[in-house]
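If your schedule permits, I should be very grateful for your opinion on a structural question. Thank you for your consideration; the sequence and its tokens are set out here:

===
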Amino acid sequence: MFSLRKEAPYDVLIIGGGQAGVPLAHQLAKRGSRTALAERKHLGGSCVNFGCTPTKAVIASAQVAHLARRGYEFGLTIPTVQVNLAAVLERARGILTQSRIALREGFAGAENPALLYGHARFTGRKGRLFCLQVGERQVTARQVVVNTGARTAIPTINGLDKVDFLHAGNWLDRPELPEHLAIVGGGFIGLEMGQFYRRMGSRVTIVVEAGQIAEQEDPDVADALQQFLESEDVVFRLNATVTRVRPQNGGVTLTLKKRGRSSLLRASHLFVATGRWPNTDDLGLETVGVKMSKDGIIHADRRLATHVRGIWVAGDIRGGPMFTHTSWDDYRVLLSQLTGDRTRTTDRIVPYAVYTDPQLGRVGLTETQARRLGPHIKIGRFEMSKNGKAREIGEPGGFIKVIADTRTKRLLGAAVLAPEGAEIVHLYVALMNAKVAYTTIRDAVHIHPTLSEATQSAVASLT
């Protein structure tokens, strides 16, 4: 039975306890709004529960195993490296559980913000109030923020529904080490998980429909990253489309089509990494007139407002970059719009990273994009093999590429394919946000030996 108890309307109801929803709930309550956060299962969103937190934890374990196998390069004798995948996954689960507990404790004993567990969906309107069902409770709110995240996009492949495949949402619960893992998709998730399972001891084949991995990157960056993975015996099938999947002999067989010719790929396990799909299909949005695109994205403006006054969006469902850090910044945009001076918007510089080894840190335009702007574009490049610290730690691979406007001396973009590339790229992020000339880095004094001083060397090559 549904609760018949009438409750006072909330000023703001937030649907989804991800990286935008949780801090927004606390800050709105602190500023005097009667606020509730509705969460279907676990606080923390995809980042904490199966994305950033556990994947980076297992990647760290894989890095230790990889370094141990290379001990001889450092003058060390390490006879064997034994991988216990179940223990690796358990370590990751322990870290994410700590995060879940900390988030939950933040709401303990609090009436404002209130934490409501249960699936939330709109049921209509009552005057200026939005009516929603949260689990077995009926609630109303003056304004609603939808922050429901995304899930693995399942491609339409003949026979896929007959196969028990891995994906971003369930891999953490699969302690069996695949003998041969076939991965469909050459984006961030496919590349990171491919290297992880290879370092755990699986054979790995990554099937990519496009002509290069990491399709949004410049060809030289993508090619170099592919070569790093191939040096660890990760196999790639480029320009290949999976037309059929079927279980066979305890494993799985993929039918691939390339340039009109078919071939078979047999593996013990399958991992689907073909993108993300917004969780907007069971929210009752039609009852309040909220429109979506055909791919499930809720239409919103640069203030994260929908065309329905009083309904806002945040995170993966709003379109644009699907990153934890953009979701967290969405919280700041919404706080500005709901209780601040309304000046903060989604007009922002969004960096990102691919957590392979070496890491790829990226910000701004690619060379391909920048070349379309005209002849005033200049490219600087520095090989990490020339960086002293990279050689000293035994990681001399990769390079840094910077893209600049010679008229303004401003940096337009950068790609850092290097050890700790996700950390190093922040020097360029800060430079671009400060809107100062790239000569600021060039003329500074950097510590030696560091990986970061390579950022100066790359900029120096512009002149």
Remarks:
- The radius of gyration is 24 Å.
- DSSP finds 13 helices and 21 strands in the chain.
- The longest strand covers residues 137-146.
- The chain has a mean pLDDT of 96.
